[in-house]
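Kindly review both lines to help learners:
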Amino acid sequence: MKRKPDLLWVLVVLFSLGVVTTGYTQSLWERQSDASVNVTQQP
């Protein structure tokens, strides 16, 4: 009986890490695209 809750907690941790890393990478992509747009608009 102890293995099922442990597996559940592992899945919860992996899911939360996936959500956090996805949000972080999306913010990085938005920052990079904004920076490239600003650079291309200057000349």
Notes: The mean pLDDT is 80. The helical segments are 3-41. DSSP finds one helix and no strands in the chain. The two ends are 66 Å apart (CA to CA).
